[in-house]
Each structure stands twice: as structure tokens, then as C-alpha cells.
Amino acid sequence: MTPSLFTESDPDMRINREEIFGPVASVIKVRDLEQAIEVANDTCYGLTAGICTSSLKAANTFKRRAQAGMVMVNLPTAGVDYHVPFGGRKASSYGPREQGSHAREFYTQVKTTYTLPI
């Protein structure tokens, strides 16, 4: 499929209300970061979200408040590393991330501790 870019779209358009799996992107112009977060979260889906910015403050705010399973800053929202959990939120996901318990083991360091009661 040939990649498609839809410009001058608005949040109520069908292309922005459905989950599309293909080489398609839609551009929604917003006035500020607050509106960008509102628009990004105004969906029943939440697989990925992304922002392009040179502001570390804006990047951190977006990462914290975006309601998506994967959030990217200055990166594409597809093609994540195979060793990290993959999945979304809301209607974009069901159950555990695709890599399940093996992903948990990848990020876990075992520590043995003892406490002697006094």
C-alpha cells in the first residue's frame, strides 16, 4: 500500500475516530500542548501516541498524560523494539501485553533480603 497523509483533518472525522492499521497518518492542528493532549485522549482507543517537540517539559507532560500503551517522543509510533511489551489501553488492548510474563522477567532483577525481628 502506498502511504497516505491526511492534512487539515479534525478530531470528529472518521479517519480520526477509528483504529487504522496501515501506512496512514492524519494531521490535526491544535493551538497548544493542552489541546494536543485532549485531542490525543479523546478516543476509545489507545495503542500508541506521539509528539514531536524540542521541549523536554512538553515531552514529559505528554508522556505522563497520554492515555496510550506506548508513547513516543520524536519517534515513529510503529516499529517498537521486539524486547519491550507491546499493547495499548482502552479498546486497543485486551489482557496482558503480547510478551506476557517473559517481558516481566526481562526487566526484573532478583534480590534476596532478610529481616531479623527485634
UniProtKB/TrEMBL annotation:
<dbReference type="InterPro" id="IPR015590">
    <property type="entry name" value="Aldehyde_DH_dom"/>
</dbReference>
<dbReference type="InterPro" id="IPR016161">
    <property type="entry name" value="Ald_DH/histidinol_DH"/>
</dbReference>
<dbReference type="Pfam" id="PF00171">
    <property type="entry name" value="Aldedh"/>
</dbReference>
<dbReference type="InterPro" id="IPR016163">
    <property type="entry name" value="Ald_DH_C"/>
</dbReference>
<feature type="domain" description="Aldehyde dehydrogenase">
    <location>
        <begin position="1"/>
        <end position="112"/>
    </location>
</feature>
<protein>
    <submittedName>
        <fullName>Aldehyde dehydrogenase family protein</fullName>
    </submittedName>
</protein>
